[in-house]
Amino acid sequence: MIKIKVSYERPEELKRILDRLRPEVKSLKVARNQEGKFKKAYIEVKE
Fold first, then answer.
1. What is the C-alpha separation between 36 and 4, in angstroms, rounded?
2. What pLDDT shows up at residue 9?
3. Mean pLDDT over the full length of the chain
4. What is the mean pLDDT of residues 42-47?
5. What is the per-residue pLDDT for 35?
6. What's the CA dihedral at 3, 4, 10, 12 to 10 degrees?
7. How far apart are CA 23 and CA 35, in angstroms?
8. pTM
9. Exposed, middle or buried: residue 20 (CB in 10 Å: 0-12, 13-18, 19+)?
10. What is the DSSP string of 1-47?
11. Stretch 29-45: mean pLDDT
12. What does the alpha-carbon distance between residue 17 and residue 5 come to, in Å, rounded to a whole number?
């Protein structure tokens, strides 16, 4: 299993990353605490 932690400023940035990883993305979890300059998301990729 591969897990990727992504930090981004705008939702468009996360969407661009997901578009590139789309066929391999197993799950996506957006962190609850979205305060501050950078937002976080966790992507799990199929092996």
1. 20
2. 96
3. 94
4. 93
5. 87
6. -80
7. 30
8. 0.85
9. exposed
10. -EEEEEEESSHHHHHHHHHHHGGGEEEEEE-S---SS-EEEEEEE--
11. 94
12. 12
Distance CA 40, CA 46 (A): 20
Q: Which two tokens stand for residue 2?
A: 């591969």
The CA distance from 36 to 39, in Å, is 7
Give the pair of three-digit tokens for residue 15: 């969407």
19-37 mean pLDDT: 93
* Cα–Cα distance measured from residue 26 to residue 34, given in angstroms and rounded to the nearest whole number: 22
Q: Which residues, in sequence order, are CB contacts of 36 under 8 Å at separation 6+?
A: none
Degrees, nearest 5: CA angle 36-38-43: 130
Residue found under tokens 């932690």 = 5
